[in-house]
Amino acid sequence: MLQCIFLLSDSGEVMLEKQLTGHWVDRSICAWFWDQVLSRGDSLKQQPVIASPTHYLFQIVRGGITFLACTQVEMPPLMAVEFLCRVADVLNDYLEGLNEDLIKDNFVIVYELLDEMIDNGFPLTTEPNILREMIAPPNIVSKVLSVVTGSSSNVSDTLPGATASCVPWRTTDVKYANNEVYVDLVEEMDAIINRDGTLVKCEIYGEVQVNSHITGVPDLTLSFSNPSILDDVRFHPCVRFRPWESDLILSFVPPDGLFKLMSYRVKKLKSTPIYVKPQFTSAAGTSRINVMVGIRNDPGKMIDLITVQFQLPSCVLSADLTANHGLVNIFSNKTCSWSIDRIPKDKTPALSGTLVLETGLERLHVFPTFQVSFRIQGVALSGLRIDKLDPKVIPQRLYKGFRALTRGGSYEIRS
């Protein structure tokens, strides 16, 4: 069980402390943790579980905020990490974003949410739809009322309707004039491409997001044309596992509103939609850079919001970069951002320029890694296809919709 949760800012300040059991955890553990962060840097941030001299620590970082949980007893580490991820997702949903200012401005609501989400160190209520019935999301009206009346509590006086339901994530009295359900396949492509153009890694992380507005307690089944390509599937608690295990069909009673039905990976893909070809030549203390970007495999839909970013090496004193298409910005931390948006049909986007090296350095010996982001609407690059979505009990006039979206995730080109 978890004994305490801390929320730390990007400077190490303790913004919120929630003691979960009778065992009090001193804030000095946060000072020890932040000293480790400062001394070990990114290597520590990549470790979700850390053993301190007195506690086991679990951490995730979202929006510059570190969610830190502590315990002195044995417990499944994945449960602690997953719970912290759920807390971050709920706060992001409630506050419509996640940063230091939002946490401080809505301190009471964050504390009330933690009160309901965990009981005596064990996860309790983590379903956003149920939490919204128990704790009202922040808005201007509630903030004005809290100032005028002096009451800062957003907790409802009545139990949520789902407590009387056969499924804890849905109330029984939901009613709509129009019954609608929409399914989105949202995918992110992670890829690593070597300097010689060899594809080292290419895989998809995807989510099936459902937005359901159906009267009563519907029972739905969702099937795919090619479910065998899916790996590492994770389901919302509403999914019945046996139909998936036997027939690879999703059978579920959906929560009301928007929720993530499942997540998955598709591994060992053979191609990427975009190529980036960087080239460097050095002589006499300067280096010429030339980067070309184009479409490698046409997905059949428009690729837009294309951005190429890279970090100039520390040995570069100044840079003069221009592009024949798009906008180039060089920031104070030596990060170069090239916003291309869409690739035109009449020319290949190219970035070129000169890098001035520090005194005494004739050639460039450290080459940057290029990070690429993009968006393709209407296509799931994994190849996953939805076959059908059927209700067991057909309500009147059920409207169904399906969409797909692919974005660039950790998409790296080494130079």
From TrEMBL:
Coiled coil: none annotated. The keyword Transport applies. Pfam families: Adap_comp_sub. Keywords: Membrane, Protein transport, Transport. This is MHD domain-containing protein. SUPFAM superfamilies: Second domain of Mu2 adaptin subunit (ap50) of ap2 adaptor (SSF49447), SNARE-like (SSF64356). One of its GO terms (biological process) is intracellular protein transport.
